[in-house]
Specification:
Elements (H helix, E strand, L loop, with lengths): L2 H4 L4 H9 L6 H14 L4 H15 L5 E2 L3 E3 L33 H11 L3 E5 L2 H13 L3 E5 L5 E2 L3 E2 H8 L2 E5 L7 H9 L5 E7 L15 H4 L6 E6 L19 H4 L4 H6 L4 E5 L10 E5 L1 H8 L3 H5 L3 H15 L3 H4 L1 H7 L2 H15 L3 E10 L2 E15 L3 H5 L5 E2 L1 E3 L2 E5 L8 H9 L3
Parallel strand pairs: 1-14, 2-12, 4-7, 4-8, 8-9, 9-10
Antiparallel strand pairs: 3-11, 5-6, 10-11, 12-13, 13-16, 15-16
Helix pairs in contact: 2-3, 2-4, 3-4, 5-14, 6-7, 6-12, 17-19
Bound molecules: pyridoxal-5'-phosphate.
GO biological process, one term: selenocysteine incorporation
GO molecular function, one term: L-seryl-tRNA(Sec) selenium transferase activity
InterPro entries: PyrdxlP-dep_Trfase, PyrdxlP-dep_Trfase_major, SelA-like, SelA_trans
Length: 432
């Protein structure tokens, strides 16, 4: 027996060797070394490198989204940068009075102006918003939902399950393909039911075609019970005034999305939506509408568990200020991706191809993503490289996430910030 077989290198020696390649804390490297020695004592050094590599790749990092899916769920939906500071914020401190304040004051005022609502509050995501509204307004009572809107959205947000957790009872109304206002009226008038509210859910990530019918918010608003519209996508106004001067005509994927301002104008008592879909803000959920209902949500015991932190509120406030200033296209990354012209994208693609000497320019179709405007595309431009290079691109110092279709790799530039084009050039150069 060699001495190597009887004495695997010491854990500390392996950890010190790993330190040359991985800038991870010593304690983490020791953990990797110990795992390797336990698993494969005869081959500990090589296995320790694998374990440390795996650990490094599991850390959160910034990436380049070359997929052309503008709101990529796996990449955190809407990209957003916000200035951070070591200083505290006045999150619950009223500067005017010097007394305790509410964390909702600033965003609530901005949302009230933008959406023409009485009040608004913010929670951690839209699933939490829907849950809180049901718990606050319909606990122990019934909520009417169309059978065509009893949907599952994204990873496990299923309306019947959320309803059950909130303590509200689900009353199914209509059929899968057709639900009319009179179906809701029948449920409301039935002596078996105690309908506290109608919940209208936007079936964000799919479309039923053919012989279909659904009741509008305006029709439901006449039925004498509160109407809550879960619009999901967070489009604040489907006339999109912030696009003026950036795009010739508001595209149909925007005009056809349910929007918060229009749902309220049509008579919804509350709207709920995500902050990180078409709003282009941080992950959060917004509840906006009638002041007494918003207050019932704000004072519900669940609110404490669902409230957002000051970083979220600061980021949301800056996004809402951009909408107010109509500078969304310059300041909100999602809207600048949407409005970048095809000629700009084409010339960026040409520059990348000539600088890297790799691939060819190619017209592409970007997707909105995050279950918003399913099936709609925006013409785009990018780079194609024969073969499947996704792994190598993903392992680049700043990972580049690309798509592969029929053994060609595509990088769509609409979802890439122009300041990151040099990273794409580096990553492509490394393929040769
Ligand atoms: C996306 C979506 C949700 C879930 O929102 P999260 O912010 O992901 O929690 C709920 N309802 C609708 C209609 C949605 O589109």
């Amino acid at each position: 027996m060699t001495s190597q077989a009887t004495h695997p290198p010491s854990i500390d020696a392996i950890a010190r060797e790993l330190a040359a390649q991985f800038s991870l804390p010593h304690a983490v490297l020791v953990h990797c070394a110990r795992t390797a020695v336990d698993e494969a004592p005869a081959n500990a050094i090589a296995v320790a490198h694998e374990v440390a590599t795996e650990f490094s790749l599991s850390l959160l990092t910034t990436v380049i989204n070359g997929t052309g899916v503008l709101l990529h769920t796996n990449l955190g939906r809407a990209p957003l940068s916000f200035a951070s500071s070591d200083r505290p914020t006045n999150v619950e401190f009223n500067l005017a009075t010097g007394e305790r304040g509410s964390r909702h004051t600033s965003v609530s005022a901005l949302l009230s102006q933008l959406l023409q609502v009485e009040d608004a509050i913010v929670v951690n995501n839209n699933a939490a918003a829907v849950m809180l509204v049901l718990a606050a307004l319909a606990h122990g009572r019934d909520a009417a939902v169309s059978r065509g809107e009893s949907v599952e959205i994204g990873g496990g947000f299923r309306i019947p399950d959320v309803m059950e957790q909130s303590g509200a009872r689900l009353v199914d109304v209509g059929t899968t393909n057709k639900t009319r206002a009179r179906d809701y009226a029948r449920a409301i008038n039935s002596r078996h039911n105690d309908i506290a509210m109608i919940l209208k859910v936007h079936p964000s990530n799919f479309a039923i075609q053919g012989f279909t019918e659904s009741a509008s918010v305006a029709e439901l608003a006449d039925l004498g019970v509160p109407v809550v519209a879960d619009i999901g996508s967070g489009l604040i106004d489907n006339t999109a005034p912030w696009l003026n001067g950036h795009i010739d005509r508001v595209p149909s994927w925007i005009t056809n999305e349910p929007a918060a301002k229009q749902a309220i104008a049509d008579g919804a008592d509350l709207v709920t939506f995500s902050g990180d879909k078409l709003l282009g803000g941080p992950q959060c959920g917004i509840i906006a509408g009638r002041a007494d209902f918003v207050d019932a949500c704000a004072s519900h015991p669940l609110m404490r568990a669902l409230r957002p932190g000051s970083h979220t509120l600061l980021a949301l406030q800056s996004v809402l200020l951009s909408y107010s200033a109509r500078t969304a296209c310059a300041e909100i990354p999602f809207w600048s991706m949407v409005t970048t012209s095809i000629t700009q994208l084409e010339s960026r693609a040409q520059h990348i191809v000539s600088a890297s000497g790799i691939g060819a320019t190619v017209p592409l179709d970007s997707l909105i993503g995050a279950g918003s405007a399913p099936g709609s595309t925006i013409a785009s431009f990018g780079i194609s490289v024969p073969g499947d290079h996704r792994t190598k691109l993903r392992m680049h110092a700043t990972p580049v996430i690309a798509r592969t279709v029929t053994n060609s790799t595509y990088i769509d530039l609409r979802s890439v910030h122009p300041n990151d084009d040099h990273i794409i050039i580096e990553a492509l150069t490394s393929l040769s």
